[in-house]
Design brief:
Elements (H helix, E strand, L loop, with lengths): L1 E3 L7 H15 L6 E3 L8 H4 L5 H17 L5 E6 L3 H5 L1 H10 L3 E6 L4 H18 L2 E4 L2 H8 L6 E2 L20 E5 L8 H14 L4 E5 L5 H10 L5 E5 L3 H9 L3 E4 L8 H9 L3 E4 L15 E3 L4 H13 L1 H14 L5 H17 L5
Parallel strand pairs: 1-2, 1-3, 3-4, 4-5, 5-6, 7-8, 7-10, 8-9, 10-11, 11-12
Helix pairs in contact: 5-6, 8-12
Length: 355
């Protein structure tokens, strides 16, 4: 059983969970999905419109669905974020799994792990130790968990080349894309400030910002304050429509302050967009500066703009980076990670608790 957010909560974990279920089924494994955010039935659905009440109602339905379904599976594979989300989502799945004597995998994805484990360690580390395996998508998180005495193994995230048609361009244009949730940790204001610099040199430049989040009002206010034209906020974009935004853009920009292994990078790689990003968290583990992308220091919008302009002014280098990123992306296909997942699952049948 794969336990994770459904695509009602747009994000990398939901996408990865969906891909994992699909690929396991294609390989003949009985793999089913249980959402951490079930939709309550009847009049209770309307209670989800009320803050705090929504959390209580959804949590009740989630735990009830775990108690009903977990007994029918051999392995409970639960995706995890950090902080309070960890308590609400993976914790019940691990506890119910143990109640029924099932093997459990904690698949932790958050780049906020260092702070999460430092501040919440007394509560969450004992729960993590209950899992038979801790799987993370990057060596960065393997190192973070090791620092807190937890053994984790890395299995890369996945990207499907078929989802993002590679578009071989003849010339890069100043058409920039930011495809992250509009949350403060992604510091999209830094990308907007970088765009202001690019816009002065390239008046035809455009910036598209996909997604939604609590920081949207502030970001729109910044665009207005800077009197920037040609900035588009798309709002929430359904999965089947996001591909078009990659196809219509030429450079992918990321300015996060905290991160791990962004799925959006793999999507940019496979779509043929060079990546310019801050060098935080696990990003340097997947982007090699000057080889398959460019990295700058955190919250440095001038350096971000300089690298964007460099790509536009050095097109031969830009296309070299695009080709190398495309090749790098092959490490993240199902064909490449399939063996790692089957090793993880097979180990559960042969060994006692690993942690």
């Amino acid at each position: 059983m794969i336990v994770a957010a459904s695509l009602d909560i747009m994000g990398g974990q939901a996408v990865q969970a969906k891909k994992l279920v699909e690929n396991l089924r294609q390989d003949g494994i009985r793999a089913d999905f249980l959402p951490i955010n079930p939709r309550p039935w009847g009049f209770l659905f309307y209670l989800t419109k009320i803050k705090y009440v929504r959390t209580a109602v959804v949590s009740f339905f989630y735990v009830a669905s775990l108690l009903r379904a977990v007994k029918d599976y051999d392995v409970i594979h639960v995706f995890s974020a950090s902080y309070f989300s960890f308590i609400l989502s993976p914790t019940p799945a691990i506890l119910v799994g143990k109640l029924y004597g099932k093997k459990t995998i904690l698949n932790y994805h958050s780049g906020e792990a260092p702070d999460h484990l430092k501040k919440w360690g007394r509560i969450v580390i004992p729960i993590m130790r209950m899992a038979d395996k801790i799987i993370v998508p990057s060596s960065f998180l393997v190192d973070v968990f090791a620092g807190f005495g937890l053994k984790a193994e890395a299995v890369f995230n996945m990207v499907n080349f078929g989802d993002f048609q590679f578009r071989k361009k003849t010339k890069l244009e100043p058409k920039l894309l930011v495809a992250r949730n509009l949350e403060k940790l992604y510091n999209i204001s830094c990308a907007i400030k970088a765009f202001e610099i690019v816009k002065k040199k390239y008046p035809q430049a455009k910036l598209v910002i996909t997604g939604c989040g609590e920081d949207e009002k502030n970001l729109r206010g910044l665009v207005k304050k800077l009197d920037l034209q040609d900035v588009e906020f798309t709002g929430r974009v359904e999965r089947e429509k996001i591909f078009g935004y990659y196809q219509d853009s030429d450079i992918f920009v990321n300015s996060s302050d905290i991160d791990n292994m962004p799925i959006s990078f793999l999507e940019a790689f496979s779509a043929g967009l060079p990546v310019v990003s801050t060098d935080v968290g696990g990003i340097p583990y997947m982007v090699r500066d000057g080889f398959n992308g460019f990295l700058v220091k955190q919250d440095n919008h001038r350096a971000l703009a300089d690298k964007i302009i460099y790509l536009l002014e050095n097109q031969e280098k830009a296309f070299q980076i695009i080709d190398q990123a495309r090749e790098e992306c092959r490490k993240y296909t199902w064909e490449s990670v399939r063996g790692d997942w089957f090793r993880v699952y097979n180990d559960l049948g042969n060994n006692e608790t690993q942690n």
